[in-house]
Amino acid sequence: MEHHSASRGDSAGGGTAVATRDFVEVCIPAQGAYLSLLRTATAGLAARLDFTLDEIEDLRIAVDESCAMLLQKATDGSSLTCRFDLSPDALAITVSAPTLDGKPPARDTFAWTVLTALAGEVDALTDEDGRTVAITMVKRREGGEKTAA
Q1: pLDDT (tens digit, 9 = 90+) per residue, 10-63?
Q2: CA angle (71 as vertex; 35, 41 as ends), nearest 5
């Protein structure tokens, strides 16, 4: 697990902008057995930002759901990378993995609807390599101001 301090104002995945204070990146084998590490990291970082218990639980479930979407399509023996961008009023989480087809998850599914309801701002894209798919979620603290994308 890596932790970095940064002052970035760029987008954490394309469509959702968050002014980043710090970021943490975790890389695990693309296997369901390791997802508990990401759920724990999510809860710890969200608690550090003073999210409510309900918001923390929503984020844990959202990370789990986004990982499940990617694991279905991940190439054998690959890694799943989860980057947490922390700002004073928001947590942006980007989960990515190399996939078999390079296609982002469909947005017209029940799973995508659940993910959007839990995380707030959600986007998915394929990296320049044409194989790695990333799902980015931005959860803002209650009372936190939304910045223009």
Answers
A1: 443 444 455 557 899 999 999 999 999 999 999 999 999 999 999 999 999 999
A2: 25
Composition of the chain by helix, strand, coil, percent to 5: 30, 35, 35
Answer whether 23's CB lies under 8 Å from 46's CB. no
Radius of gyration of the chain (CA): 14
Put simply, whether the predicted model's pTM sits higher than 0.70 gets the answer yes
Residue 83, by phi and psi: left (phi above 0), alpha (psi -120 to 50) or beta?
A: beta
Cα–Cα distance for residue pair 142/149, rounded to 1 Å: 18
Residue with the two structure tokens 């987008």 = 11
Q: Which residue has the tokens 């993910």?
A: 115
Reference 81, options 3, 27, 138; nearest CA is: 27
Cα 103 off chain centre by: 17
Which residue, 97, 104, 96, is CA-closest to 124? 104
DSSP code for 127 = -
